[in-house]
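B., you asked whether I could sanity-check this one before it goes into the benchmark set. Here's the sequence:
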Amino acid sequence: MRSRTAIWFETKLRYEKMQEDGSMKKVTESYTVDALSFTEAENSITEEVKSYISGEYEVTDIKKASYKEVFFSDAAADDKWYKAKLQFITIDEKTEKEKRTNNYFLVQADSFQRAVRYIDEVMGKTMITYSIAQLTETMLMDVFEHTVKSSEPAEEKPGYEQ
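And here's what the prediction gave me:
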């Protein structure tokens, strides 16, 4: 289990998808991408899916995600995405009252129970007191992280000899 903090955008993509019976059907699928702007998010999702989709497709929606951190699983069976609303609990020193702050996360897991286990695994390593206020399965197909393309090796330039 690893986590990644970034600016995430939820995108929707509309295209014709081949069904199990061989027929074509227009579908809209949701994906999340790591990007710095709406333009970069559109470019990222286009790059990521172009090798999987044949024919025409259209990005129909892009919005900033409410979560800043995603918990990624390495288990092949973890193919669902859950949106978690955690409440961080602190005590106000002046009033001595409990204060709850909502924070949102995206968790990759194969079940509700495993998503809870992963949240506890990651958050257990912190000193934050929290409670899981809400956990819902999303319709996300996949999450794509920003990757830096390695460029060609720099050509060696002759140095000055002394």
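One thing to flag: Residues 152-162 have pLDDT under 50 and may be disordered. Otherwise nothing jumped out at me.
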